Amino acid sequence: MCGIAGQLHRNGRPVDQDVLARMCAALEHRGPDARGTFVDGHVGLGIQRLAVIDLVTGDQPVANEDGSVVVVLNGEIYNYRQLRRTLEQRGHRLATEGDTETIVHLYEDHGPDCVHHLHGMFAFALWDARRRTLMLARDRIGKKPLFYALRDDTLTFASELGALLCDPEQPRAADPVALDRYLMYGYVPAPLTAFRGVRKLPPAHRLLLRDGVEARIDRYWQLDAPVAGRAAGDPRELHERVRDELRAATRRRLVADVPVGAFLSGGIDSSAVVAAMAEQVSGPVRTFSIGFENEAYDELPQARLVSRLFGTAHEEFVVRPDAVALVPRIVRHYGEPFADSSAIPTFQLAELTRRSVTVALNGDGGDECFAGYTRYVAN
Fold first, then answer.
1. Is there a catalytic annotation at residue 2?
2. From the candidates 2, 24, 114, 166, which is the catalytic residue?
C-alpha cells in the first residue's frame, strides 16, 4: 500500500514544494519505505512507497527514456512481466525491474488508453510534459482510492482526504448532500466525499487535464455481466472454471519480493484463497485470524479448522472491548463518515499481520461476485 499526491496549477503558478512535502508526510503510514517527488514548474507529483516489487530499483517517480512522461503509482500491476517483454520487443528501454515503469512506456504507445492493458489494483498519476497533460486513473473495481479537488485553476489529488487537506487553500466546508447519502447508505458513495468540492475518482475512470483545456473525466471499462437466462452448461464444468479462475487470480497476487500471507476468517471466500495459495507456494502459507470473546461472533474455530487442513503457519488475535480506543485513529485514516463496525477488528488484524508479512490476501469481493448477501436476492 503506497500513497500518492500532487497538484497542478493551470495558471502557471509554481507548485509549493512545502505543501507537496506535507501531503506526502500525511501518507507516510501508507508508504514508510521511501518518498519521491517530481516538480516541473506548475505541476508536482509525490509518492510514499511501500516496497513490494523490485526492492532495489523500484523507487518512484518513474520516467520514460527522455523524462517526458513521469508516473507515480499506488498499487500493483499483476501482468507487468508480460508487459515488460512486449515493450522491450517494441524497442523500449526499461531501467528498472518493477511494474511501475510499464505504465509510462504503455502510455508512449497508447496514450490514455494504456489503462486497457493493465491488470491490477492501481491508482496512478501521470504527467506528459510534451502534451502538457496530467492523467489520473483508477483500477476497474476501485481497490485503490483516489481523491481530487478542482477549484479555479488548481487540481489537487491524493490517496487520502487527510493528505489532500494539507493544502491550506483547499476549502473544508462539509457537503450536505454527502451527509444525506451517508445517512441513507452508511457510507459516502462515489463521486461524493464529505467535503464540498472534493470528489472521489470513481472506479474504472480516468481524469485528463490539459493546459488551457477543461478537465475531462470518462469511464474506460464496465463489467460485462452475464445475460440472464444464458445456458449454464454442465455444473461440473462451471465448478472447474471457477476453480481455475481463482487459482489464476491468486497466482497473480503472489508475485512479490516481500513475505506474503493471508487473512483467514474460516468463511468460504478467505478459505478458498488460502486453499489456492497452499497449492502454489513451496512452504506453509502464513495465515492470520481475529476473534472475539463473545462466542456468537467468534470465527476462530472455523479458521483453525482450515489452517489445519492446509497446514498453514497460523496466528490469532482476540478483540476486546478496549478496542474502542482505536476509533480516533481509524476515523483519521478514513477521513469521512462511515458505518462499518468491522473496521475495528480489521484494523487490529492488519496491525497483527504487518508484524510478520508485508502483503496479505483476503476474501473481500467474494460476496459481491457470487451474490453472497441476502439483499442481492432483490436484484
1. yes
2. 2
